[in-house]
Fold each of these.
Amino acid sequence: MSVRVQSARFDAGAELNAFSAGLGNAGAVVSFTGVVRDRDQGGMVAMEIEHYPGMTEAAIAKILAEAEARWDLVRALVIHRHGRLEIGEPIMMVATASRHRVAAFEAAEFLMDYLKSRAPFWKKEIGAGDAAWVAAKDEDEDALGRWSPKKD
Amino acid sequence: MSVRVQSARFDAGAELNAFSAGLGNAGAVVSFTGVVRDRDQGGMVAMEIEHYPGMTEAAIAKILAEAEARWDLVRALVIHRHGRLEIGEPIMMVATASRHRVAAFEAAEFLMDYLKSRAPFWKKEIGAGDAAWVAAKDEDEDALGRWSPKKD
Amino acid sequence: MIDCLYFAWVRERIGLPRERVETSAATVMELVEELRAREPRYAAAFEDISALRVAIDQELADFDAALAGAREVAFFPPMTGG
Amino acid sequence: MIDCLYFAWVRERIGLPRERVETSAATVMELVEELRAREPRYAAAFEDISALRVAIDQELADFDAALAGAREVAFFPPMTGG
């Protein structure tokens, strides 16, 4: 299980290949990549991501440990960036590997749901002359509900 | 939307990067990669995949069109190989891009479920001295049930 | 005349991947009966219909589907791609 | 003495990322009341507690949680990572 919190850009394809190498008997690999996209109203210049050093890594490790406890994973990876990101750059990535595709998919969705609402990151959209913190969505908090009660 | 049926090996990471380039306002990219793994009892040497040329491409295109009708996808990709594959090689890949992570995940799972049971591919496990067709699993057929009745 | 295609272990049991079949069968099931009656290898391939799938002109179909106008009928086990 | 950390718009409203606070507050909420009473920028930052989250020593907590033994308390809006 691997956690990386970094400001440096990463190459999602290279990460996927490194993650998929030598998996042994895990035949199913799922990845999620979040990419900086323009605001719906347009005019966004960049994104700024703040985080809580120390807590961030611990919170992600805790979420990964929970995913390992629930699903039969051979490997799991979370990369999340902070700092200034340009449009089109990868923000973060989750990858899971399992013998079964359903486990790989569910674990990746679980990781995403919890990262969204339980890992201390805050996004700010930078426009040409303005900047605004992204508001949390009720649907993201609600999404956590589907993982409880605990399933095997 | 893109469908490729090929015997040549492909580079999943390079495919993911090409797929994710210039997505505009799609911030969520999900990929699934199926990798040749050893049999549970071990001793597998390679995998041989037979398919039905003509029908294969049409069946995948139909499944992709159905996914497009159900989810708000900006882009979708299916690559599936046939012929002889060594252990550790990628068998197939699905990628989806959407503005919303839930749509990207659901569409990718839908594509996988239908590819497993509705696209004309047959896998044969080649051992050192034996070879056996992989049997379809009831659970794969059952998995289709969750996509019906049609949802928006 | 209909092109019959066989895949995976159906192909292996029958011993060939495709053949042109002279038939006046009205349905897939009638065609299966004719093939079964030919030789033991066909009888073996079509022994358990529930373990087989059929496609007419490259579209999945049922065994009671009509063959009127069909050019190509394919028989194979349940798919195992992905 | 407790280290108070502020993130995102909480940090911006208060105007600093962290500070050491002399307090004998028994709970997070008591600490919030003390901070609110300091200056308008604190009152603005802590105006609506339902829009805030709190972590004690880097673990998410509730506003009625006890501060006994706490070294670090962080205030921030709901997370928006991923």
Amino acid sequence: MSDTKKFLYVNRKAPYGTIYALESLEVVLIGAAFEQDVALAFLDDGVFQLTKGQDTAGIGVKNFSPTFRALGDYDVNKLYVERESLEERGLTEDDLQEIMYEDEDDDWAEKPSIRIVSRAEMAEIMAEQDVILSF
Amino acid sequence: MSDTKKFLYVNRKAPYGTIYALESLEVVLIGAAFEQDVALAFLDDGVFQLTKGQDTAGIGVKNFSPTFRALGDYDVNKLYVERESLEERGLTEDDLQEIMYEDEDDDWAEKPSIRIVSRAEMAEIMAEQDVILSF
Amino acid sequence: MKIGVVISEGPYTHQAADTAYHFVKAALAKGHEVPRVFFYHDGVNVATRLSVPPQDERNIQKNWTELAKEHGIDMVVCIAAAQRRGLLDENEAERQGKDANNIAEGFRISGLGQLIEMGIQTDRLVMFGD
Amino acid sequence: MKIGVVISEGPYTHQAADTAYHFVKAALAKGHEVPRVFFYHDGVNVATRLSVPPQDERNIQKNWTELAKEHGIDMVVCIAAAQRRGLLDENEAERQGKDANNIAEGFRISGLGQLIEMGIQTDRLVMFGD
Amino acid sequence: MSTLHTVNKSPFETQTLLSCLNHCREGDAVLLIEDGIYGGIEGSALSEIVKESAAGVSLYVLNEDVKARGIDPGRLLGEVSGVDYEGFVDLVTQHDRTQSWL
Amino acid sequence: MSTLHTVNKSPFETQTLLSCLNHCREGDAVLLIEDGIYGGIEGSALSEIVKESAAGVSLYVLNEDVKARGIDPGRLLGEVSGVDYEGFVDLVTQHDRTQSWL
């Protein structure tokens, strides 16, 4: 086995009602330093973490959604979002914030980090991992 | 308003996976000393709290189900259990432990504390309360 | 009106203690009384003075301590729930033979009877939890 | 095999810390290695030495402290999660200007890197939570 | 005599909202707070059943929680009214009791 | 290459079990632990959908959790096998990864 493992962070919970989304992101940021093959999965209520226009001033809780846009700088650029989970919640890709990264293998072209996948594709992605962390 | 209020303890969670069922019972026991009009409601997964034959030795957690049988001694004898909640879970009244109390107004006759009610009746019971505590 | 409040989940992990805080502030602003807030289940963890949230986050314990001081709210931490979870005041620590205590200013440890009493003496009771 | 374990809910409130305990004991009994248990989210609350569970209940912290001592398990409490929730060791208390600490024997406070490292160095990782 | 019910869970995750609505009586109010506000979204897989189950009941969402989660109020069911924390307090005092569906 | 999935929530309370089953692949195993064991009950409103969704998947329950909750093993789906904590460990080592559905 090589030194690089495939890590998947599975996000199934909505933001702010509980802390799991925020503390998941904290692991992702620290984990980025370990140079593993990292991907994030958003399914079920986890897709709500990525909505644009979050404004938490009224509830007095820190808005961590801008941090997702910084993930590209940490070489974290595979954010898989499940289409069926969006649809069941009345959301489309347009409701999610734009998250971009610069592809060093393609002359630093700007590319979207969010990849909408079907439930079947999500199951395949999960089945390819070495380590799955659930939040 | 009289000094006596109607208190309802609403139990909607299964036992052992979380502590809510046990800590609900602790409130009921303490609350009994206050001579209020007390009733317990079991609906949704709360009906699992009353199954007979619980044996927690294997999970190393205290089995608190016998405590329900002591409630009669504390003058707590209205345990409303929702029929639809039982049915959805494949349970019948026979799966619940027998919980009795002695009716002081009827020559101390032994009577069952568990009263199976319909969802509509449960809604009525809830609507009659002064104070509702949820667990 | 007199409104009693129960908080039954821990700080930061669940939004309950935050929502309750904004609710109580609004109730007080509208002229209602909030004589007591009762902390049960993991809610007892709100009362630790040892928490050190990041500087850009709210300090839930401090917010409650200040609000209670300003408005004379009786903040009661359930003793049974607190013992299980390691929340002790000086007396309890001594009684239990523990070498430290962690309850913040403004919170007092007492029994579940205080919850029932609050239910009897207030006009409304609102619970915040999971 | 090397099995890493994560506990992400607090003691008594959720069964996670109990299930993990029985799982780890069984893994060790079958000859596997459990080099590290990582406590995250409310799981950090398992590490308080101030808890006083009723005498007829299990003592979750003591169970873990003893199991770890007997089998050389490295029990790591996430520092960021611990700070939010008021779990401090002596060093952290001093650094943060707090007048008390509450970490039990056998637990050490460290960073999230220890979780990733555990994921890299073990053959399997099992999480217990809510 | 009526009840204010509060629901703080997403109906896509738990059964709490539907259980609450199935125990409401005509004239009751249901206030969606915290992650509960997702129950007010129009065009979801649950919108129709929420609307049906809420017949005769007044549905509210806590504005601050809606805003925090980036849900445009225009995306909510027409049946839903928004309140702020002071409106939450008014709902508590206007009804005879509060039942928190935890 | 296969996955062991663990589910610790009641399917009558949360969507977790169904979400898990909808992401399983042929040859995977699902172990129901803690309150998750209620997902193994025969004759419930969810038994049929659990059985259908679990096609191609091996279903297990943790015996100790079943016993604790007073559920007679005879009341479980015929498709479900019981394991103890040591069996749980074996399932972890026999599959290539463990995914906890929290």
